[in-house]
Specification:
The chain is of the alpha/beta class. The protein has two helices and four strands, in the order αββαββ.
Length: about 100
């Protein structure tokens, strides 16, 4: 057809696609969780080679554990490194120096 251009994508490595897909699944689980309806924006996630790294701050150790259990079972995740700090209004903190 005249004037029609076909766009071609060249994929060098599927790792970026996998990482993006895993992070979308993580985001979806957090957004849909009643525990994280207010806190999901405070969590940052990185994924590489089967390892999901969680960072950020939460107000309780309970939420830190719930976070990890919500994300267990995603197919591409072999291990979760939960580096989330607990900082509560009562002054208790797990923040590393």
């Amino acid at each position: 057809m005249k004037g029609t251009r076909e766009k071609t994508r060249i994929r060098i490595d599927g790792a970026e696609d996998t990482s993006e897909r895993v992070l979308q699944q993580v985001h979806q689980r957090l957004v849909c969780s009643c525990h994280f309806s207010r806190h999901w924006r405070e969590i940052r996630c990185d994924y590489c080679d089967g390892v999901l790294i969680l960072r950020g701050r939460l107000p309780t150790f309970y939420l830190k554990q719930v976070l990890q259990s919500i994300l267990n079972g995603l197919p591409e995740i072999e291990r979760i490194e939960n580096r989330v700090d607990v900082v509560s209004v009562e002054g208790l903190s797990s923040v590393r120096r």
